[in-house]
Amino acid sequence: MIEILIHGRGGQGGVKASLALASAASKAGKYVQSFPEFGVERRGAPIKAFTRISDDPIVVRSKIYNPDHVVVLDPTLLHSIDVTEGLKEGGWIIINTEKSPDSFTEFAKRFKVATVNATKIAVDNNLGSKAAPIVNTAILGAIIRVLNVASKEDLEKGIKEFVPVKAEANIKAAYEAYDQVKLGKEA
Amino acid sequence: MKHDDKDIKIKGASDMPEMPASLGSMAHNKTASWRNLKPVIDESKCIKCFICWKFCPDAAIDFIDENTPPKINYDYCKGCGICAHECPVKCIEMVEEER
Amino acid sequence: MKKVILGDHAVSYGALLSRVQTIAAYPITPQTLIVERLSEMTANGELKAIFTKVESEHSAMASTIGSSASGARAFTATSAQGLALMHEMLHWAAGARLPIVMANVNRAMAPGWTIWTDQNDSLSARDVGWMQIYCQDNQEVLDSIILGYKVSEQVNLPTMVILDAFVLSHTAEGVDVPDIEDVDKFLPPYKPEIKMDINDPRSFGALTSPDVYMEFRYKMQQAMDKAKEVIVEEGKKFGDMFGRKYGLVEEYKTEDADTILIASATVASTAKAVIDEMREAGLKVGLLRIRVFRPFPTEEVIRVLNGRKKVVVIDRNISFGKTGIFFDEVKGAFYNSEGNKPPMFGYIAGLGGRDVTPKVIKEIMEDAIKKDKPESEILWKGVKL
Ligand code: SF4
Ligand code: SF4
After folding, report:
1. Which Pfam families match (chain B) (predicted)?
2. Among candidates B1, B16, B23 on the partner chain, residue whose Cβ is nearest the Cβ of C215
């Protein structure tokens, strides 16, 4: 079973990203679970979204405390929370940033880092506004490329299901991120 | 589970319906037996306002037509006296039932 | 067709596939998504039903009672304070013997104000005469709505299908959504024996004298007894048709177990991972999941527990002044039974949505295994002193 934790801010679409990812993985026969941090989501406040993907039925229904991988939707979160909290050693940290993976030397000691400029991709595709780009679909392309948890075709279906508005632009953004994501050295 | 007999006798749970509903229409429940005072309309004084008809809690007063005084259905009238109380010209008298 | 859907939407699909004819509901977190989706389904014509917006949960149930009494397949959903507000009407629905199905999202009662899960809302409605089904996953939620109508319409008692707030209501997972034509074969249209009908006038719910009131109560209990058989029968038939069988309880690795854990809802689901882990370490442990709480599976509980070394009950609820409610009920079921009565440990955990993780469950099991008998009737797990 793979457990993925998405860090984002309320309004960025982290929960939708988790749903679309789960849906994409389920298309290939995987068992999936996707849920937000339970409570009240406030725009701008840090949020978490959880995804489990497994070959066997998933019975555990508690939150994910020790994710295999984490995704950071908003680079400013790196300064306000510890995104590696509970992260299993050797796990991927996929970050939306213009920086290259090599610039995260501290993370690279125990984890693997991948980066993608999802913000630019979102803005280029007119997803959200310049001030508040919706980066959730772009990051999905990076996630499936790095973690290999779903095919591009299945991701397309997942996005259509959970992000039906501007589906084509969202899919294009995901594909661009798929191609542009930079993978750091294996730790 | 429809009973049309006038006289329904229940032994116990086995011949009762599942839900607390009457076994048939309440038309079977002739409430006249509750009455000890009987309303009698003096048709000569009746102004056909039909206030009694509106007020009867058991719908025991029948409307015939606009030009005819209403008729009390003595099978169901329970003798509450509301009609007599409400009648604006006091033409309904509550008379003692014959025993 | 497999769809990744939230627990709330599994409820909506269950109602859609059951071809419910009326929905009257008042929104309350975390149930809102259920009726939101149903209102969409009725608005776009996918579901031919009358959707009534009401001003409170009391009215929601009152309206549902009215439509059910007139012969419609009626549905509603609520949670927590909403369920409490409709409490009077819950008695009315059961006493009038109406086969209503309602989803209740298990949410803890306020104050302190909360939107997270525990079972005190539905368990406060224990004695109203509704059947209660506690679900462990979204698939079971969808299936239990359909099964609910199938059973309710045979025994003339309402069913409450219960799912944990957020842990199911707002969690998406793969759910097999059956074809409506197949569901039609399983669940025929509702044909009540008695209904409000101008061609067969009756009076409903009129004054009931001491002469007959008790007989109506006796009949409700008989219906509950019969429901135990019907739930098992229909659960089997459902399994034959859809590949998923349901009963009153679910046994997991109980066969040779010395210690049996009793749990319900999603705690029972998570517990399976703990049972697996402890089994791998060589411990003979098993799980008895109580799926149906009303009617209570007394015979099954006795059969499974008889002769075991220890019984551990986890309650995500509490009856103040007594103990955890499942613990109390399991103990009560056992008192007049023959044979060996193992010591029972009653833990309270996860109130107000505190996460019941595999670690929490494992610690509970280890605590019980190392003790001869419980030091008190309530063992609080994780309360900070
Ligand atoms: S006495 Fe009462 S029941 Fe009889 S007709 Fe008058 S109002 Fe109706
Ligand atoms: S209330 Fe009196 S006056 Fe009016 S219709 Fe009745 S009997 Fe006649």
Report:
1. Fer4_21 (PF14697)
2. B16
Look up the CATH architecture of domain C2-242.
3-Layer(aba) Sandwich (3.40)
Angle at C166 (CA atoms; ends C162, C168), nearest 5 degrees: 50
Q: Which chains touch B (3 or more CB pairs under 8 A)?
A: C
Q: What is the total count of domains within chain A?
A: 1
Model pLDDT for residues C121-169, shown as the tens digit of each residue? 999 999 999 999 999 999 999 999 999 999 999 999 999 999 999 999 9
Asked whether at least 3 C-beta pairs link B and A within 8 Å, the reply is no
* Residue in A19, A26, A61 closest to C2 by CB: A26
Same-fold call for C2-242 versus C249-380: yes
- Coil vs helix vs strand at B62: strand
Q: What is the pLDDT of residue C160?
A: 98
Residue at C340: amino acid letter: N
- Please give the CATH topology (third level) of the domain spanning B30-96: Alpha-Beta Plaits (3.30.70)
- Put simply, the answer to whether C167 touches A32 (Cβ < 8 Å) is no
Residue C191 sits at φ, ψ, to 5 deg, of: -125, 90
- The full DSSP string for chain A is -EEEEEEEEBTS-HHHHHHHHHHHHHHTT-EEEEEEPSS---BTSEEEEEEEEESS-----S--SS-SEEEES-TTHHHHS-TTTTPPTT-EEEEESSS-GGG-HHHHTTSEEEEE-HHHHHHHTT-B-SSSB--HHHHHHHHHHHH--S-HHHHHHHHHHH--TTHHHHHHHHHHHHHH-EE----
Say whether A19 and C269 touch across the interface (CB within 8 A). no
Q: Which of A122, A140, A112, A143 is nearest to A16 (CA)?
A: A140
- Domain range holding A44? 2-183
CB contacts, 8 Å: A51 with chain C: none
Asked whether B24 lines ligand 1 (CB < 6 A), one says no
CATH number of domain containing A38:
3.40.920.10
What confidence tens digit (pLDDT) does each residue in A4-28 have?
A: 999 999 888 999 999 999 999 999 9
Complex ipTM: 0.95
CA of B99 to the centre of ligand 2 (A): 27
Q: What is the pLDDT of residues C289-305, one digit of tens each?
A: 999 999 999 999 999 99
C96, C193, C202: residue with CB nearest B24: C202
CB–CB contact C172 A22 (8 Å): yes
Q: Is B39 in the pocket of ligand 1 (CB under 6 A)?
A: yes
Residue having the nearest C-alpha atom to atom 6 of ligand 2: B52
Residue C272 confidence (pLDDT) above 60: yes
Q: Which of B51, B62, B71, B72 to mutate to test the pocket of ligand 2 (most atoms within 8 A of CB)?
A: B51
Ligand 1 in reach of B82 Cβ (< 6 A): yes
Which one of 3.30.450.40, 3.90.1150.100, 3.40.50.1820, 3.40.50.920 gives the CATH number of domain C249-380? Answer: 3.40.50.920
Per-residue pLDDT of C10-62, as tens digits, reads 999 999 999 999 999 999 999 999 999 999 999 999 999 999 999 999 999 99
Q: Do B18 and C200 touch (CB under 8 A)?
A: no
Question: Is any Cβ of chain A less than 8 angstroms from the Cβ of C362?
Answer: no
**Cα(first)–Cα(last) distance of chain C, in Å?**
49
